[in-house]
Amino acid sequence: VMLKTTQSDEERKQQQQQCNDDAAAAAAAAADRRRELHLQSEQKRRDSIKLGYERLSEQVQSGGGTSDGGGKGAALSKATILQRSIRHMESLNRQRELQEAELDCLKKQVAALQVIEESYRQLLASGRLASSLSAAAASVRVPDSVKLAVFRGVMDELFDSFNSATGDASSFVELSGRSLAWLEHSCQPSAMRDLCDRVVRRVLAESNLSPAGGPALTSQSAL
């Protein structure tokens, strides 16, 4: 009985030792696996950084960055690569800003042309241009002196308006700003139509021009 008990205790000790050895081996294997994964991850990170620097170096040496020593194909330090890359990005940002400004200007021009087109559509719809080709107007021969008087009257009123809007400008910048404001306010199609209508009426009243055997020429037919 004593012998069996001793053998049983020895077997339990061996089993316990085996379990401990297995656990230690498993822990060591897990640690080795973690270490291997960490090394692989670190290597991938380093490879990615290296690849990134290589690509940046290709970009800056192919003309992407400004030259500060070292010809094409020469080895560049990481600091030089980063500096050139930053300058290249700044240059690209400036180009983008210029392109955006140009695009905004073109959009404004398109909008202005659309407004002008719509104004002419309304002008045609109202019959103002069609009336200028009417038989009554076509049958009247307007003297050049009357045409000149109309032109001069329009120009005089425009100059008076312009001079009133810009007369006390103290600098070219202020003159430029006031000129544009005057142009936008006083030279709109509706304002110009009213101005021409007013001048034509005045000139016709002064010249008493009328077609032979017909009514006096109106400003609408003259326009």
TrEMBL record:
Composition bias type Low complexity, residue spans: 15-30
A molecular-function term among this protein's GO annotations: protein dimerization activity
Positions of the UniProt region annotated as Disordered: 1-74
Annotated SUPFAM superfamilies: HLH, helix-loop-helix DNA-binding domain
Listed Gene3D superfamilies: Helix-loop-helix DNA-binding domain
Database matches in InterPro entries: bHLH_dom, HLH_DNA-bd_sf, Max-like/E-box_TFs
Keyword DNA-binding: yes
BHLH domain ranges (all copies): 33-92
Chief localisation class: nucleus
GO cellular component, one term: nucleus
Cellular localization per UniProt: Nucleus
Pfam family membership, one: HLH
Comp. bias intervals (Basic and acidic residues): 31-57
Regions of compositional bias (Gly residues) in chain numbering: 62-73
Coiled-coil residues: 82-116
Keywords linked to the UniProt accession: Coiled coil, DNA-binding, Nucleus, Transcription, Transcription regulation
PROSITE patterns per UniProt: BHLH
Name of the molecule in the record: BHLH domain-containing protein
